[in-house]
Design a protein that fits this description.
alpha+beta; four-stranded antiparallel sheet; 12 strands; 20% helix
């Protein structure tokens, strides 16, 4: 009987410690506040202390520039529903200004010092270069992608020079 009582006490103590730990972690990761009629929830999605910048969101997916490797920015995606983080490529030279629509993410990708528009399909995990000439700041909406044409800049002719 004494052995059974000790087992119950140990199990209860373990459960209580687990609940305290879980509640502590949950409160550190999420905070809520009320602004007017809105309840806002703030949730930290990365614990890395490097710079994370330029977030974009569509549905349950957040994308951002991340400098966690220390060699330059790369893009990451975070699925809010599954709490899964995914790097969108292994290029650490420079990936900037992401835009997301549905399961497609577009961004400015630096190759040999020049920006090109790239796209990543979250459903198929495939990356595609979508411009053959330099291009800046691609933005996606539906099945359309727009970006700034960089060919004039490449040739030394820019609107700001006129």
């Amino acid at each position: 009987m004494e052995k059974k009582t000790r087992s119950i006490a140990l199990a209860s103590t373990t459960l209580i410690l687990f609940l305290i730990l879980a509640l502590t972690m949950a409160s550190a990761a999420s905070t809520q506040r009320v602004v007017g009629n809105l309840t806002l929830t703030e949730t930290q999605i990365t614990t890395n202390h490097s710079s994370q910048e330029m977030p974009a969101i569509y549905g349950d997916t957040i994308v951002w520039e991340d400098n966690r490797n220390g060699e330059g920015c790369t893009l990451y995606a975070y699925n809010i529903s599954t709490a899964e983080e995914t790097p969108l490529s292994d290029n650490y030279v420079g990936e900037f200004k992401a835009s997301i629509y549905g399961d497609r993410v577009v961004w400015q990708y630096i190759i040999d010092g020049y920006p090109y528009a790239h796209m990543y399909n979250l459903s198929t995990s495939t990356e595609t270069q979508i411009t053959v000439n330099p291009a800046w700041e691609p933005i996606i909406y539906g099945d359309k992608i727009v970006c700034t044409d960089g060919r004039a800049w490449l040739n030394g002719n820019t609107d700001s020079d006129n």
